[in-house]
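INPUT
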Amino acid sequence: MNALSSSRGQLWTPTRRRFLTGSLALGVGAVAGSSLLSACGSGDGGTSGDSATIDFWQWYSPQEGGSYSVAAQSTWFADLADEWNARGGAQVRLTYIPIAEYIEGTQLQSAFSAGEGPDMFVISPGDFLRYYNGDVLYDLTDALGSAAGDFYASAMSSRTVDGRVYGIPMESEPLTMFYSIAAFEEAGLSEGDIPATWDQLLTVADRLTTGSRFGVLFETSPNVYQNFTWYPFLWQGGGDVVDDSGLASAFDSPAAAAALKFWQDSIAAGVAPRTMQGGGGGDLVANLASGYTAMAQMVTAGGSFLEAGAPDFEYGMFPLPVPEAGADPITDMGGWAFCVNKNSANAEAAAEFCAWALAGEESVDRMVAWAFDAKKSLPVRKSVMQKAADEGLFEQDSLMAYAAFDVVGLDAAALDSDDTPFGRGEPRFTPEVVKAVTDAVQAAQLDGVDPAEAAGQAHEQIDAALAGYDGAPLGS
Amino acid sequence: MATTLQRPPTAGASPPVTLRRPRRRREALAGYAFVAPSAIGVGVFVLVPMLLAFGLSFTSADGFGRTEFVGLENYRRMFADPLFTNSLKVTLLYVGAFVPGLYVLALIMALLVHGDLPGRAFFRAAFFAPYTVSLVVVGLIWRYMLADRVGVVDTVLRRLGVEQPPSFLGDPDLALWTVVFISIWFFVGFYMIILLGGLQDIPSELFEAAKLDGAGYVRTVFSVVLPLLRPTTFFALVLATIAGLAGLQAFDLIFVMTEGGPANSTSLGIYYIYQQAFRGNQFGYASAMAVWYALALIALTGIAFWLTKGGRFDSADR
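OUTPUT
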């Protein structure tokens, strides 16, 4: 039978009536179908109580591949969720968001704007004020209890407002310099040539620069990560973005101008690139291991990304160079924190999970594993640091020992001290202040604007942004 | 009232046909039914968001549910904001280079593939090919190709004797023009097709007549093709202007390749709006800027329609 024949064997002829009737039926069907699909899709988040599901957004797990992919980190998160879920009660569900989308994308913000924010999520200090001032962060102080005292002050300060804790840090990631051993050897350089000052860095970078390789890399993309990597150079000269009150600009300073000039000089000398490879300046595999640059700035956790993404690549590290010999190599300590959505129906259970995961007594071994085996970031708890020292892990892991004692300057004999001589917690700023600093860095670094002038303009922008500001204090 | 249509007189005169009201109504309903899917789509996904954005532009909406009425404050702030002024300047430069560049190149290509070019079908497909690729992929590929020192463009330039090739995406003086170039490269095939459609509507007799009159190729293009292509040109230019101001490439390419940098040199209006909304949590302010751009676009299009009488250039079309 012909395909265009009806069941009664008559030829099917497309009349207008039939067409309209069919179209109408299709339309109604589509609308009804989409409504049903919508109905199926809603109510998935679970409700408060034993059967609740805690939706946990982060950029670690479950994942495979990608610039910042490390299987051990994904596994650590999966194990964490499994262990919690095996206890019964509210169940944690991990939702993976790619890092680029997580940091610069719209997914998290859009979810909150739609009133559908996740129950739990991770944020860096750079984003803390957006969410705190947006009044969506749950107060974790009670869930944390006395365990708060176990955390280093430098890690807690940017997550605390008026003595209340709104994010529990899971790590500390101090910035350092990485270099390619092969590039050094090729240029006839050795460990004795490792630069200690800004001038030395530019000189060494010049020797490492070839027709197809840059000597050193500083972040060039205009975003909060660029600011994060530039702050240490500002601090090393005694400068800061805001004053001690955290509510007024301190940016118009010789230190700011000097730090801006340092990056400007690296571009002007042709030893640093104007653009990045791969996922940005922090993507050591795409930038350092690939041979695009011989030295690059990144948090110490970059070691884990190199070992995962370029296992045969030989690299070394050295503390950030300083303006003048003898100055303290102050660095910026980033790191992510667990936060809970204040408006979540499962906020209390999520807070309990946060405290159990990161602060409880039984979590010490877990956090040692995160720091030493998965991320190569420093523990933010004194007890975890002490446990690692007691087990001799620093002797076994030179990268971690370097990060703790050379980069941050911890005293091995006083790991319970809040004193982190060279390490300063990543500061928190409002988006307007972040943008003002970014614009100053970009103008000086890439547009040749006089550094002092760029600092002055940013100073005015910051003061204007803070004129009517009534949120939490800025800084670290 | 019933409508009566007189049929032309035929042999064996038949009675006049009368269209009764129910039938007219049914036809009207049919018309609405055909339009409804598009109308609903435009209403839900364009009109309603536009109205909501207009409403938001008078508030201090922060994206976290707090919305306070602030009157015209966002509009006042807009013109005191140097970054908005910068984005406006960047947008005008971008549109000013993108639209004419795109049109001229698309026209040349349309003329090429309209004639007796050997392998015409291949070239039509090849010119159109970039348009079929995702803009994000386009951005990533170009970023890779334009990488300083190691990119293929840099390598080729060095082999051609350029000692220090420029940083196409890292130099504030070059980045915007690089984005313009890539935007044109991406879109030119699509506009070539539009103009080719217009070219194919021109009767071949006119080309033959021009040839008999002794007109050369260039004279034929200027005296025959361009005048008759005016309605298509009008459509293409309006479309390109809208694309330049608010099109996908104006956002996607910037997002992937430059993030508005270096030094805000590629911070197009639409990207700055995104930054204010999703990075700065200034949804009210971002909406005010969006409204401003929408009104500017409507005004520009309106002026173009008014000047050209809706694109109908010849009295016969009116």
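end of record. The interface with chain A takes residues 30, 33, 36-37, 62-66, 83, 143, 146-150, 158, 164, 167, 169-172, 259-265, 275, 278-283 of chain B (CB under 8 Å).
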